[in-house]
């Protein structure tokens, strides 16, 4: 008997229950309800039992296209569905199509729940009353552009190739969800109506509500809004279709990659079946850790691979087991495959490592706990599982099954499925650049209710005998104590020659060893999590612990803090770590500080807080020790606590445990003056002549948080890009149809906020995209200025965001920590709410002109840009510079 089986049931015993309730309306709509009284929102999730597997030949991509059309407006809510819901305070709002189901989801404040349910019911029952043929043309272009951009990315075509060759021609999974261009062009408006009337029916849908709602309330509301929608015809569905790959299949292709890629795939049973669950664990044992057999063989014993992953792609009808191996340059793919198959053979003929199996099970347990703690993630999981044979109960049953699974069961599944025929794909780098609808009665949307800000209990404050400031806020969760140690030791205090010193010293403290165990490891042994955040002005060490462990944890923390962590060995180890961090930084993290701040500015360093390789090389134990002694002093720190314990009891506990941390200096260091970012524009180009796509990033400089302009600044980002209806987002996606996604970017710094966006688009569209962005900015300053209606909508979105209460202690801790670190008043959120109410165009317009006028903005454009550099400079009214081959040159 494998010895892990005696320990694993303990894991299963710690798995949370999921006490949901199920109701079925007369029209066949299934309602699942999970009540979480601590949640500040209600998650709303709709799962329709239709996906790419239901598409007939010649209509591949239809399911995904229909998902997009569902956001095009309905009878009572014409126009953008997303815009309506964003003004109702919806967060996490989106839709997604898979081979099996189509999902729509959002979280809303309780006061907006009726509105969200009305909106979902309106597009389920009455979409055709507001849908017009022009919407089909727009969304056809959007999904086609999305497909093209994905396929132009390196390895973008590989997934579709795997599906076509792993599954037989007539199998529902033998094509990619995105579909085919030619098929999408053939879709007619009549096809859209037929698909909608067939699949978007209540008896083919599951609605899940999770969060701040009772089952009784949920049932009443769903019945009210969905109960009168007529069901569709009953459909026959395929439950299981497992392909049999009798022989090995091999594919060989080239793509725009630096090193060879090897993919090996086996068909396996559908999601949730015993063998598939076992193979998910087997994948974790095989390749998840540094001690996994395949990692040791290919990366330790032999320098064959730079990255390895093993995973299962799950489906309702069938699944497939994947190996993905990125090869070192010069390594032969057949040698790697030979060693890989040898490892698989050994694992199937020898006992499985019990520690690795338990690690794989522990990871599944932790991921499940984390996912189920979030109402929206849980709602999505319940809704998807309800469409499976085991229904929503199968969500927890599958995890219990995995946690109770023996090593013998896992190996037996691998023996059954990983010795049959397989698909091997080798990708080499390019060797050269190459029904009748009846109108319904008019429907009126219910009001969106903006809750007033919940009263915030005043924080209680004390000072310990060693000078440590204590701030306590009340807890929501009983039995837990959340803490954040804030030390005024951020990167702004780095001596000019030692940039990166603050980051390194903070890392030294967080990994400080006592008796051979690091602080993080010791805290973990006490069921205490730890997060280290190094900012510009301060660092924060966050912990969440069981209340009975608090005194022991703080006593241990005191031991760590009162002794300098600097030694030659620790400095060298951390220097190597941060050099690797530098290697992993993207171009924006290198470039943005250099184009925002002049030389010698405290924030002109990679990612605003990192050092360079040159500055890290200069850091000595003496320099680190001096920084520690100057900054890591109790009178230079604040301990923020979220606890239900009385303040006097807490003070006594902290005095006993932390008073040994004594100051080494008498005065706290004076923060340096930090001038705001330069508002002048700049254009930096990264030339990649072989790229098929361009990545375009832009940031606009606005006043920092805590200025009189905070309310106006809060509205500018959603006005430009953060919502679906934002000027730039909507134009690039829906009007010019140049990209399918514009991602917001933001960076808050002392004295400045950088608000911007990022998009990826086909390289030939680079100039058109920049022209469209410039056109939208010019229109805001000229012939299409900000309207009162836009302002009111943006204010409502922001007020709903502000009125959202915290859902747990960690969130409350982070919110209060932000106020302390930014130097803001405790009632800052109420001040901001009041300022928003009084906001008008006159207050916003000067900031817009400062940020988006011609010649403003920080632009970073990567792709085949040399040929269009002069035109880009002309459009943006900025001289073009080039990103250096070695980004360290930006800081010399």
Number of helices: 32
Number of domains: 4
Main sheet makeup: 6 strands, mixed
Q: What gyration radius follows from the Cα positions, in whole Å?
A: 29 Å
Tell me roughly what share of residues is in helical segments.
Answer: 40-55%
The overall strand count is 25
**Strands in their spatial order, largest beta sheet:** 1-2-6-3-5-4
CATH superfamily of the largest domain: Metalloenzyme, LuxS/M16 peptidase-like
- Give the amount of beta strand, in percent: 15-25%
CATH topology of the largest domain: Cytochrome Bc1 Complex, Chain A, domain 1
In CATH, the architecture of the largest domain is 2-Layer Sandwich
Could you list the spans in which at least 5 consecutive residues all have pLDDT below 50? 1-9
Distance N to C terminus: 63 Å
**Judging from the principal axes of the Cα atoms, what is the shape?**
globular
**What integer is the average pLDDT?**
91
Q: Which secondary-structure class do the elements indicate?
A: alpha+beta
What is the name of the CATH class of the largest domain? Answer: Alpha Beta
Keywords: Hydrolase, Metal-binding, Metalloprotease, Protease, Zinc
GO molecular function, one term: metal ion binding
Pfam family, one: Peptidase_M16
InterPro entries: Metalloenz_LuxS/M16 (IPR011249), Pept_M16_N (IPR011765), Pept_M16_Zn_BS (IPR001431), Peptidase_M16 (IPR050626), Peptidase_M16_C (IPR007863)
């Amino acid at each position: 008997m494998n010895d892990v089986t005696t320990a694993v049931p303990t894991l299963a015993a710690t798995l949370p229950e999921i006490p949901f309730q199920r109701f079925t309306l007369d029209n066949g709509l299934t309602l699942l309800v999970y009540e979480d009284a601590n949640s500040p929102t209600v998650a709303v999730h709709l799962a329709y039992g239709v996906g790419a597997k239901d598409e007939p030949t010649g209509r591949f991509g239809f399911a995904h296209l229909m998902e997009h059309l569902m956001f095009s407006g309905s009878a009572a809510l014409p126009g953008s569905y997303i815009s309506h819901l964003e003004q109702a305070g919806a967060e996490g709002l989106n839709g997604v199509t898979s081979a099996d189901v189509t999902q729509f989801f959002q979280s809303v404040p309780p006061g907006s729940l009726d509105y969200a349910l009305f909106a979902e019911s309106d597009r389920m029952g009455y979409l055709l009353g507001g849908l017009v043929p022009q919407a089909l043309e727009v969304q056809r272009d959007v999904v086609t552009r999305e497909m093209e951009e994905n396929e132009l990315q390196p390895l973008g075509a590989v997934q579709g190739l795997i599906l076509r060759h792993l599954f037989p021609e007539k199998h529902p999974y033998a094509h990619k969800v995105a579909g085919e261009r030619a098929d999408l062009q053939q879709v007619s408006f009549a096809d859209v109506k037929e698909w909608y009337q067939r699949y978007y029916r209540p008896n083919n849908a599951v609605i899940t509500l999770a969060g701040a709602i009772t089952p009784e309330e949920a049932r009443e509301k769903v019945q009210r809004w969905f109960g009168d929608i007529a069901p569709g015809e009953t459909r026959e569905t395929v439950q299981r279709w497992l392909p049999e790959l009798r022989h090995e299949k091999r594919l060989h292709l080239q793509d725009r990659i630096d090193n060879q890629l090897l993919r090996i795939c086996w068909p396996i049973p559908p999601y949730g079946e015993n063998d598939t669950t076992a193979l998910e664990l087997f994948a974790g044992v095989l390749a998840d850790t540094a001690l996994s057999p395949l990692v040791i063989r290919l990366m330790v014993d032999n320098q064959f691979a730079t990255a390895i992953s093993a995973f299962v792609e799950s489906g309702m009808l069938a699944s497939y087991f994947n190996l993905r191996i990125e090869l070192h340059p010069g390594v032969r793919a057949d040698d790697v495959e030979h060693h890989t198959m040898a490892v698989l053979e050994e694992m199937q003929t020898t006992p499985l490592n019990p520690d690795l199996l338990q690690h794989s099970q522990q990871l599944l347990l932790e991921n499940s706990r984390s996912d189920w703690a979030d109402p929206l993630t849980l709602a999505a999981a319940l809704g998807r599982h309800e469409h499976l044979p085991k229904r929503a109960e199968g969500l927890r049953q599958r995890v219990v099954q995995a946690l109770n699974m023996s090593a013998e069961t896992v190996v037996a599944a691998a023996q059954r499925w990983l010795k049959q025929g397989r698909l091997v794909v080798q990708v080499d780098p390019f060797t050269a650049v190459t029904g009748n609808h009846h109108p319904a009665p008019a429907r009126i949307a219910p009001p969106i209710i903006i809750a007033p800000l919940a009263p915030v209990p005043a924080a209680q404050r004390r000072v310990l005998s060693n000078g440590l400031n204590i701030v306590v806020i009340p807890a929501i969760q009983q039995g837990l104590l959340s803490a954040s140690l804030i030390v005024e030791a951020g990167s702004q205090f780095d001596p000019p020659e030692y940039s990166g010193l603050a980051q390194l010293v903070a890392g030294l403290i967080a990994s400080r060893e006592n008796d051979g165990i690091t602080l993080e490891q010791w805290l973990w042994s006490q069921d205490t999590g730890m997060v280290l955040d190094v900012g510009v002005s301060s660092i924060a060490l966050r912990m969440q612990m069981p209340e009975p462990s608090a005194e022991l944890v703080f006593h241990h923390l005191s031991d760590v803090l009162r002794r300098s962590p600097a030694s030659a060995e620790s400095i060298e180890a951390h220097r190597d770590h941060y050099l690797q961090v530098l290697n992993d930084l993207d171009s924006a993290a290198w470039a943005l500080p250099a184009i925002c701040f002049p030389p010698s500015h405290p924030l002109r360093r990679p990612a605003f807080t990192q050092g360079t390789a040159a500055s890290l090389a200069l850091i000595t134990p003496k320099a680190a020790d001096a920084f520690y002694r100057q900054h890591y002093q109790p009178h230079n720190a604040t301990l923020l606590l979220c606890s239900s314990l009385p303040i006097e009891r807490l003070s006594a506990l902290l005095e006993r445990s932390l008073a040994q941390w004594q100051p080494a200096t008498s005065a706290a260091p004076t923060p340096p003056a930090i001038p705001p970012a330069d508002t002048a524009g700049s254009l930096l180009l990264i030339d990649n002549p072989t790229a098929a796509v361009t990545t375009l990033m832009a940031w606009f400089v606005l006043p920092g948080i805590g200025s009189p302009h905070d309310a106006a600044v809060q509205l500018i980002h959603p006005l430009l890009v953060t919502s679906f209806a934002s000027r730039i987002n909507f134009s690039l996606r829906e009007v010019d149809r140049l990209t399918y996604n514009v991602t917001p970017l933001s960076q808050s710094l002392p004295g400045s906020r950088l608000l911007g966006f990022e998009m990826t688009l086909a390289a030939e569209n680079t100039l058109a995209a920049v022209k469209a962005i410039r056109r939208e900015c010019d229109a805001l300053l000229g012939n299409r200025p900000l309207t009162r209606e836009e302002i009111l909508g943006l204010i409502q979105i922001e007020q709903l965001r502000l009125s959202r209460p915290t859902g747990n202690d960690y969130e409350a801790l982070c919110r209060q920590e932000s106020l302390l670190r930014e130097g803001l008043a405790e009632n800052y959120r109420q001040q901001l709410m009041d300022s928003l109410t009084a906001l008008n165009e006159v207050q916003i317009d000067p900031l817009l002109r400062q940020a988006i006028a011609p010649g403003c903005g920080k632009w970073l454009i990567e792709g085949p840009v040399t040929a269009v550099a002069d035109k880009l400079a002309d459009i943006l009214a900025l001289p073009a510079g080039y990103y250096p081959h070695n980004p360290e040159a930006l800081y010399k």
